[in-house]
Amino acid sequence: MFRYRTVLMLTLASFFCASCKNEPPDTRAQDERAIRDADAATLKAAQANDVDGAVANYADDASWLPPNSPLVHSKTAIRAGWAKLTGNPGFTIDWQINKLEVARSGDLAYTIYTYQMALDGANGKPITDQGKDMAADTFNSDLAVKSRVKTPESKHKTTKHRPRKRHKTS
Length: 170
Hints:
5 helices, elongated, three-stranded antiparallel beta sheet, single chain
């Protein structure tokens, strides 16, 4: 009887512990909706030549791959690039998200999209462009991580080694 009770208690305890995992809720659908909404607002702003709205979702340390131009770093430089682009006569732009992935953890998302753009050239003739791009967003906290896991650097105490005494040989 004691053996059965012990087996039953261990079985129940293992099921109880297995169901106690603190897994965060899956928010990918809400995250995807928020990204699509922010993207739609950015597109609407770009189409209205609203530079501030077009760059509203860029981080201060973001990088931008403008069409047919060098890579641009920083929100300030990105804003200047958008201002130059939208300031062209005949400027129009459209883009479509072709793929959007959000990590289960909620700390990474990326979109792959295609765009179509037109503007008037120096001679007044329309210039059209189309292409593809990718946007990646990472989300992380500025708060310090409280971890009990020791890193390889912190596992070993720093010890000072004394040089060995050398024996004199005659």
